[in-house]
Design goal:
- This protein has 302 residues and is an alpha/beta fold.
- Helix content is 45%, strand content 11%.
- The protein is built from 11 helices and 8 strands.
- Strands 7-6-5-4-3-2-1-8 form an 8-stranded parallel beta sheet.
- Strand 3, helix 5 and strand 4 form a beta-alpha-beta unit.
């Protein structure tokens, strides 16, 4: 197991909530020229983890979302694919077969997603099942109850254990920020996840409101920046849930660039967890290029 140094996570510095909110407002006022906008929108497409995480998911539903991942808009040349499709462990094998021959990754949620209320061995088995079926990436949830009870070492050890199980697969750690209540808790949970070995930190499961917000994401980006400056280790960021339109996605890219730099503006280090964002981005690309909106009928809902 990789040697991971623990820290006293009870002594993190408080977050300046007012300062965060003021900074975030500035990201939303940046003007983007037409050419840069199209480039940014294509970048957003390539950063999406196209997601279906419903109890009613079927083989056909997963095959359909994988087809969409590969063929976002065949009548508009030069578009990238999405970064990954994200599914339950039971659907990993279907997804893996469906994206075979492409660069699209298969991500799987695990550790008793979305609640995380299960014994550690169940979480380990859940993760191993997804990996054995071909998952390239694991999106795990932290034990929010343990975190909110102040059991930070428990949360740390659980993440480190799942990281070891992952081997070469990249690990995204979901904080479920809507349940963490404060920005101070978001910062603390981000630090715990990164020091425990997370390859990405992720805002939300998409099952709790509020999900991803710009202030929460900004605090997590600041944590990534500080961690990189201290350790030299890069960690990725994935806001998920509630980002459904292209304009908002572009604001997120501005925030990433100005906080972490252009190195993070690839799907290796930044992702959007979304199920409906791709359609609006596609419509905006066509509109920006041609001046004409296409009907939503031209795009599949799944």
């Amino acid at each position: 197991m990789t040697q991971i140094k623990k820290h006293d996570f009870s002594k993190t510095l408080p977050v300046d909530k007012v300062g965060v909110e003021e900074r975030v407002k500035k990201f939303q006022t940046r003007s983007i020229k037409n050419e840069a906008k199209i480039q940014g929108l294509k970048m957003v497409l390539n950063m999406i983890d196209l997601t279906t995480l419903e109890g009613k998911d079927t083989r056909f539903k997963v095959e359909q979302i994988c087809f969409k991942a590969k063929h976002l808009h065949d009548f508009y040349p030069g578009l990238p694919t999405v970064a990954a499709v994200c599914v339950y462990p039971s659907m990993v094998k279907v997804a893996k077969e469906s994206v075979k021959g492409t660069e699209i990754k298969v991500a799987s949620v695990s550790t008793a997603f979305p609640a995380g209320q299960a014994p550690l061995q169940v979480k380990i088995d859940d993760t191993k099942y997804a990996l054995d079926n071909g998952a390239d990436e694991i999106d795990m949830v932290i034990s929010r109850g343990k975190f909110l009870s102040g059991e930070y070492n428990y949360v740390f050890d659980e993440i480190a254990t799942i990281k070891e199980v992952c081997g070469n697969a990249r690990l995204k750690v979901i904080l479920e920020t809507g349940e963490l209540v404060t920005l101070d808790n978001v910062r603390k949970a981000s630090d715990i996840a990164m020091y425990a070995g997370a390859d990405f930190i992720k805002t939300s499961t998409g099952k709790i409101k509020p999900a991803a917000t710009m202030p929460v994401t900004y605090v997590m980006l600041q944590a990534i920046r500080d961690f990189y400056l201290k350790t030299g280790t890069k960690v990725g960021m994935k806001p998920a849930g509630g980002i459904s339109n292209a304009k908002l996605a572009l604001h997120y890219l501005v925030m990433v660039k100005e906080t972490l730099g252009e190195e993070w503006l690839t799907n290796e280090w930044f992702r959007f967890g979304a199920s409906s964002l791709a359609n609006d981005v596609l419509m905006q690309i066509v509109k920006t290029d041609t001046g004409i909106y296409q009907s939503t009928d031209y795009f599949s809902k799944d």
